[in-house]
Amino acid sequence: LDPQMQAALPVLLRLEEAGFQAVFVGGCVRDLLLGLPLHDVDIASSATPEEAMELFPDAIPTGLRHGTVTVRHGGRLYELTTFRTDGEYGDARRPDEVRFVRSLEEDLRRRDFTINAMAMDRSGRLTDPFGGQADLRNRTLRAVGAAEERFAEDALRLLRGIRFAAVYGLSFAPSAWRGLKAGREGMRLIAMERVGAELDKLLAGGGLARGAALLAASGLADRFKEPIPALARAAGACSAHGRGLAAPLQAASRLQRPDDGWAALHLLLGLTADQAMQGFADEAKMSFATLRFSLARQERLAAVLAFHAGVQRLGRDPQRDGLARLVLELGEEPVREGLAFLAAAERAGLAPQLFPAGAAPPAALLSGWLEQLPARTLKELAIDGRLLQRQLGRRPGPWLGPLLKRLLEAVMLGEAPNETEALAKLAVSWMEGE
Ligand code: ATP
Ligand code: MG
């Protein structure tokens, strides 16, 4: 067993001691067999949610209707799900009703792919009724049961399939591939939030290039033309008649933070499409809003795109003042976001691709300059509004903001020292001059 599974053993034991069956299921079993690090450990058991809540009184009833409670143990959270079968799917999204069952095999049958339909007990014994282990060994993605039906039940499985194939380097079994193509209309039915979460996992798992190729080959890419045009274009670029973007997309696949992937995707496909950058920034913003990203996240992404445009203006031989102006224009935090992206792009070998003229100033150089700036924000300025009012003997008013900004600019551009007295004098001289 993996150390993370070891850590969860007391939860299994507690259930077993109470007479229930309890096993590890899903992604953790799959990743363990692949020799990959586990990110979360899911547990399934024959205990109903009520029975589970009795055994773990401080469990959080996160999804009682679907049989899920979240158990806290040793500082970690575990999803504990009751063995269940799914009832009818009325809307290709969620089962209308679930039925709790006492049999593990019945529970495994409702799962999407054979590689996800395995369970492991606490001694490491595998339950694998659909040949998931063999499929993993042969690098095959196969639906549990009739693929076409399974995709029709829940269209999210289309995207999950693409993700698993792309991230783990699996080939679709012929039946699964046919099912995917037959079910692609279902894409329209998936809530955009779920699409976003799935694509995030695709990006985090390094599956962008392979995923784009699979979207193209399956015809699923067409469904993205409207909501996420850059992704549809990426798919086009990976198909046989593409614009030769496959290599940069490969490099972009090495980015590990989903947001870096999203930014790179839009920058790459913006640049080669040879359209105005502004148009692409707007398009990117639309996509991120469509994917229901949080506002904070949308702002961070917009900052990275704005930073990229700004850095491009700095050119191949950037000056410290240029960076200072960028900080004045965008703000310190957005510049830090942008620098983190630039550094990640460098590590992925993607930086040259993001700057068509090859004018990518190294992130380390820009970061060094940022740290050296005598101030980056009004907070760091050696004078504040209150002091200025006192020095100038004026009441607070709309004159104050612009004056502070001007002082910050003077400090950041090296025209004045960041010292209270000098700044007060400078302000006085400006006011007298007007
Ligand atoms: P990862 O955690 O790496 O994203 P995972 O396979 O664990 O992958 P989860 O969303 O955590 O994915 O789901 C846990 C398990 O629940 C899956 O392994 C699968 O058995 C089952 N499952 C999840 N979503 C679906 C679905 N849409 N249809 C059928 N089974 C699903
Ligand atoms: Mg999981």
UniProtKB/TrEMBL annotation:
InterPro entries: Bact_CCA-adding_enz_type3_sf, CCA-adding_enz_C, NT_sf, PolA_pol_head_dom
Keyword field: Magnesium, Metal-binding, Nucleotidyltransferase, RNA-binding, Transferase, tRNA processing
Enzyme class: transferase
GO terms classed as biological process: tRNA processing
Domain of life of the source: Bacteria
Chain ranges of the Poly A polymerase head domain: 24-142
Keyword tRNA processing part of the UniProt annotation: yes
Keyword Nucleus among record annotations: no
One Gene Ontology molecular-function label: tRNA binding
Gene3D superfamilies membership: 1.10.246.80, Beta Polymerase, domain 2, cca-adding enzyme, domain 2
PROSITE patterns attached to this UniProt entry: PROKAR_LIPOPROTEIN
E.C. number: 2.7.7.72
Pfam families reported in the protein's UniProt record: PolyA_pol, tRNA_NucTran2_2
Cofactor section: Mg(2+)
Every CCA-adding enzyme C-terminal domain range: 364-426
Family: Belongs to the tRNA nucleotidyltransferase/poly(A) polymerase family.
Protein name, entry field: tRNA nucleotidyltransferase
Species whose genome carries this gene: Paenibacillus pasadenensis
Lineage: Bacteria, Bacillati, Bacillota, Bacilli, Bacillales
